[in-house]
Write a structure and sequence with these properties.
The structure is a single chain. By secondary structure, this protein is α+β, with helices and mostly antiparallel strands. It has four domains: 91 residues, 2-Layer Sandwich (Nucleotidyltransferase, domain 5), CATH 3.30.420; 164 residues, no CATH class; 110 residues, top7, de novo designed protein (2-Layer Sandwich); 84 residues, no CATH class. The protein contains twelve helices and 28 strands. The strands form six sheets. Strands 4, 5, 6, 8, 9 and 14 form a six-stranded antiparallel beta sheet that branches. Strands 17-18-19-20-22-21 form a six-stranded mixed beta sheet, covered by helices on one side. Strands 3-2-1-15-16 form a five-stranded mixed beta sheet. The two termini are 44 Å apart.
């Protein structure tokens, strides 16, 4: 199997794609602009304590106050083997505390934070305020587990904790000690900064996306392609530090005529992530819908009619769907509760087999899941740990035409489509490109400077004009090339930057 990573920057966003045999398995994104990233630590102030909810709301300098559960216990460490000692938080209005972002704001909900600060390294996670000693369940050798836990225990002080990560298997005592001292220094620097900082200050920023991916990803990768010069230098430096990768596997992709994702056939796969529908290999399909509380997936036979009886047709479709559902939740980074409405099956052994297929397919996902038994109505429920944000939150935005209950393509996604069209037309030999598009999308492209790097770089000396239309939908584009010395354009046409 060919395993490849793809790193690129475009339209103010960093993209990381992991593909197996040309098929996307995982996608992660991060804005180039400073923002509120999971893992960031803030100096906050308790705005109010709600006893009935066993929660406090913390002013952290964000648009909405953050939600802090007071009785969450050790839920955040439940994915590791180990025991935690944690007392219930006792806070009052006006208290100043350090909190770490664990779930970004979504919709009308503010961000979720924790007081259980953690600092992640390659082999260890340092917990300066949590008495917890844990180890990854993927380390199965009992001798290795005992030795690693013993060493981690020696490295902590009273009231502190360590989690031994999967990558630590095979690490030397010296490596573990060096990394633990480094993580402790980071914590001390956070305390020093927080001492004199005003409320709302970000006192610690989580590593950038390439660093996190290169730190946490497993080996066995055939190639790493990078489509941006700045990212290339960063990824190359990180690869040199990993003995299982090395700089020879890092390839700089450079083209004046097409994007890296288009060249490798990944663009259409990325765009398909905004669709509610996902096709199955036998002609059936899934319908994936987000709600405020959960994600709901409906399984349909589509054009597949089977070759024998109805029960066999339905059973085969459900088995295929179970594997594709596991792929889609990983690909779209869907977290929380997922409800799956499988096609009705009469035989209990078929329902049990689909249950097993779903659980087995989810095992290859790095995010932990828990599958509940299928009901008699052939509805399955499972939970998946949230890791970063769902990809749909980057590619979609609330629709302005239906009281924000539906979704349309995000401005950033539309900017990437415009970018692809411009590059394709320049590749055909045109010196000028004219784009007609929705007025609000055009305004966003100009205000956010999504295409400014291309205009000042690879498109220098060429002309790109945008013409706004109030009647165009947000996802509508009309693009043409022109080589005329003088262009006949309406008064509203605007030269890009």
């Amino acid at each position: 199997m060919k395993k490849e990573w793809f790193f690129d920057r475009m339209c103010g966003e960093q993209f990381v794609v992991y593909a197996e045999d040309g098929k996307i398995v995982e996608v992660a994104t991060e804005s180039d602009r400073p923002g509120d990233a999971v893992g960031n630590i803030y100096k906050g102030r308790v705005a109010n304590v709600v006893a009935g909810m066993q929660a406090a709301f913390i002013a952290c300098g964000m648009e909405r106050n953050c939600y802090l559960p007071l009785d969450e216990g050790a839920a955040v460490f439940s994915t590791y083997d180990g025991a935690v000692v944690r007392e219930r938080l006792s806070l009052k209005e006006g208290d100043e505390i350090l909190v770490q972002l664990v779930k970004p704001a979504r919709g009308n909900k503010g961000a979720k934070v924790t007081c259980d600060l953690s600092f992640v390294g390659k082999n260890l996670i340092f917990l300066p305020k949590t008495d917890f000693l844990g180890i990854s369940r993927k380390i199965v050798n009992e001798t290795s587990r005992a030795a690693l836990l013993s060493e981690a225990d020696k490295l902590r002080e009273a009231g502190q904790g360590f989690i031994v990560r999967t990558a630590a298997e095979g690490a030397t005592k010296r490596h573990l000690k060096t990394e633990s001292e480094y993580l402790k220094r980071i914590y001390r620097s956070v305390l020093e900064l927080a001492a004199g900082a005003p409320v709302g200050t970000v006192v610690y920023r989580e590593y950038s996306l390439p660093v996190k991916v290169m730190r946490d990803s497993l080996g066995g990768v055939n190639k790493i392609y990078v489509g941006d010069e700045k990212l290339y230098e960063r990824v190359l430096a990180l690869a040199r530090m990993r003995g299982d990768l090395g700089e020879k596997k890092v390839v700089r992709f450079s083209s004046e005529t097409e994007t890296m994702f288009a060249h490798f056939g990944l663009s259409e796969q990325l765009y398909s992530l905004v669709s509610h529908r996902a096709e199955l290999s036998n002609g059936g399909y899934l319908v994936i819908d987000r709600t405020e509380a959960m994600t709901v997936i409906d399984v349909n036979t589509g054009r597949y009619t089977g070759e024998s009886d109805l029960e066999s047709t339905v059973f085969e479709t459900n088995l295929i769907a179970a594997k594709e559902i596991a792929r889609q939740v990983r690909l779209r980074n869907i977290g929380g509760i997922v409800a799956v409405d499988f096609i009705d099956m009469a035989e209990e052994e078929h329902r049990a087999a689909v249950d097993r297929a779903l659980a087995e397919a989810l095992e290859s996902d790095r995010a932990r899941s828990r599958v509940l038994p299928m009901s008699e109505l052939c509805v399955s429920l499972f939970t998946r740990k949230r890791t970063m944000h769902e990809i749909s939150s980057v590619l979609l935005q609330p629709c302005p035409h239906c009281t924000r209950q539906g979704y349309v393509y995000s401005d950033m996604l539309m900017a990437t489509r415009v970018r692809n069209e411009i590059m394709a037309h320049f590749a055909e030999g045109y010196r000028s490109v004219i784009i007609e598009l929705n007025r609000s999308v055009m305004r966003a492209i100009l205000e956010h400077g999504y295409l400014s790097e291309d205009v000042n770089g690879r498109w220098r000396g060429k002309r790109v004009y945008m013409i706004p239309h109030s009647s165009y939908r947000e996802d509508t584009l009309s693009v043409r090339g022109d080589n005329a010395a003088v262009l006949d354009l309406p008064d509203e046409a605007q030269l890009l930057y």
